[in-house]
């Protein structure tokens, strides 16, 4: 499947000079993302589209090998185009066009079946129909304009094109990037299970994420999912598990959804991690992406303000984590560092106004790091003080945590208020490999999901 994500050349059926046409948007995305291969727009009008020479037909393209065809023609023309692709022996196709099984009509289902049969006879593998296509940071292959593709260690398969784009943008805003993404649509041929298997064998991918509306073969999905989970975390957002959601999924991609209880059981048994929303999918993926080593459940909470400490303690217990009991030597040393009034040297460690002192977070982290009762550290930023160069000293907080990474042996997570004034600090933390969450609840749930996964996964 490497040629699908990293094609040497792409032919675009239905290429257009009209900016609102999907045939234009596909060409524009390839150009903006710096696609490294050759682009052949197929359009009856001679000329150029965004600087790429157009061709009247596939036959007009000389004997150059074509690895991928992108099809954005009307539904009635797709079968004919697939026949041309078959005769040219193009190995992979992305069928962007919608109007098939997802319509719920006999005509739509029959047309999709005939297209699939044509492709199978010719040995063509295809994505879709009713999809957006693939993204690869290596080749610059993309279906959305991303002027500067940045290489990452995550992969995403989604049966929704819009959710692929949204997830990419949300992750990018938090400094997390993708190696590969695919919008798989109706999955008449290649299914999300195929992509999970492929991503598991990609050495550049360490975290796999998925948005799933329905599965055709539950048994195969479970078997592959279990195998993949044994080597890489797989985080799944399963939607369409309610009556209303199931109807929406059927009309969106023609997917059979299944009940919530069944899906919960499948994911738990196979070691795949369930997310309840796009933001939660990103939160859990963020933790795995930045902290690749196994983590435990005993958490030390430290920082200010005090209310965040209480929220963090509640969240930890709610998700099955343990607020660690600190060793006596730890509390003794903390008492020497923190002011005696307005602070707490128990866990949570409420640093009070001591949190505004220079290098205080680094000093506390040195002490906590040596406590044998602790597995994980959760540092809270946002002390209500204005002594410093940045708002609520948030950049000083980020710098101290970044400096502490040089000696820390325990995984470090943070909570930072998601304000306009804190975005620079959040990017600093992410760049240093420290996951930053907007709320204690989000951080605790991500830590709990990570701990559960490493408890499930067989030892290596």
Key features?
single chain, 460 residues, alpha/beta, Rossmann fold, 6-stranded mixed sheet, 6-stranded parallel sheet, 16 helices, 19 strands, 40% helix, 16% strand, elongated
Question: How many E strands?
Answer: 19
From the N-terminal CA to the C-terminal CA, the straight-line distance is 27 Å
The level 1 CATH classification of the largest domain is Alpha Beta
Unreliably modeled segments: none
Please tell me the overall pLDDT: 92
Radius of gyration: 25 Å
Oligomer: single chain
Neighbour order of strands in the largest sheet:
8-10-9-11-12-13
Q: What name does CATH use for the topology of the largest domain?
A: Rossmann fold
Q: How many separate structural domains?
A: 3
Fraction in beta strands: 15-25%
CATH architecture of the largest domain: 3-Layer(aba) Sandwich
Main β sheet profile: 6 strands, mixed
Structural class per helix/strand content? alpha/beta
- Overall helicity: 40-55%
């Amino acid at each position: 499947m490497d040629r699908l994500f990293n094609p040497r050349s792409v032919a675009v059926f239905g290429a257009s000079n009209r900016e609102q046409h999907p045939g234009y948007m596909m060409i524009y995305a390839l150009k903006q993302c710096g696609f490294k291969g050759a682009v052949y727009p197929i359009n009856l009008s001679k000329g150029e589209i965004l600087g790429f020479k157009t061709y009247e037909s596939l036959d007009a393209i000389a004997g150059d090998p074509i690895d991928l065809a992108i099809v954005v023609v009307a539904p009635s023309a797709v079968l004919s185009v697939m026949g041309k692709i078959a005769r040219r022996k193009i190995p992979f196709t992305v069928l962007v066009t919608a109007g098939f099984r997802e319509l719920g009509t006999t005509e739509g289902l029959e047309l999709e079946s005939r297209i699939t049969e044509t492709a199978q006879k010719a040995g063509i593998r295809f994505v879709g129909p009713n999809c957006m296509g693939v993204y690869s940071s290596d080749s610059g292959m993309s279906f959305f304009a991303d002027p500067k593709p940045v290489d990452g260690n995550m992969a995403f398969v989604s049966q929704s094109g819009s959710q692929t784009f949204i997830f990419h943008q949300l992750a990018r805003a938090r400094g997390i990037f993708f190696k590969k993404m695919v919008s798989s649509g109706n999955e008449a041929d290649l299914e999300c299970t195929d992509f999970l298997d492929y991503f598991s064998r990609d050495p550049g991918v360490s975290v796999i994420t998925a948005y799933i509306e329905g599965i055709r073969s539950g048994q195969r999905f479970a078997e592959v999912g279990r195998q993949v989970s044994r080597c890489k975390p797989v985080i799944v957002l399963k939607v369409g598990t309610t009556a209303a959601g199931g109807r929406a999924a059927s009309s969106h991609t023609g997917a059979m959804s299944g009940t919530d209880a069944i899906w919960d059981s499948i994911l738990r048994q196979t070691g795949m991690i369930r997310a309840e929303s796009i933001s939660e999918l990103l939160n859990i993926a963020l933790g795995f992406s930045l902290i690749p080593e196994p983590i435990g459940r005993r958490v030390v909470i430290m920082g200010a303000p005090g209310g965040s400490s209480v929220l963090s303690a509640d969240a930890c217990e709610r998700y099955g984590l343990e607020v660690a009991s600190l060793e006596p030597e730890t509390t003794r040393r903390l008492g020497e560092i923190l002011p005696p009034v307005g602070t707490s040297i128990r866990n949570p460690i409420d640093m009070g106004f001591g949190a505004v002192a220079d290098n205080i977070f680094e000093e506390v982290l040195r002490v906590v790091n040596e406590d044998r009762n602790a597995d994980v550290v959760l540092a809270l930023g946002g002390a209500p003080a204005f002594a410093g160069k940045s708002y609520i000293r948030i950049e000083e907080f980020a710098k101290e945590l970044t400096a502490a990474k040089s000696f820390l042996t325990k995984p470090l997570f943070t909570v930072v208020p998601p304000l306009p004034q804190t975005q620079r600090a959040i990017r600093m933390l992410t760049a240093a490999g420290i996951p930053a969450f907007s709320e204690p609840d989000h951080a605790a749930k991500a830590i709990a999901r990570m701990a559960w996964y490493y408890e499930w996964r067989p030892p290596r």
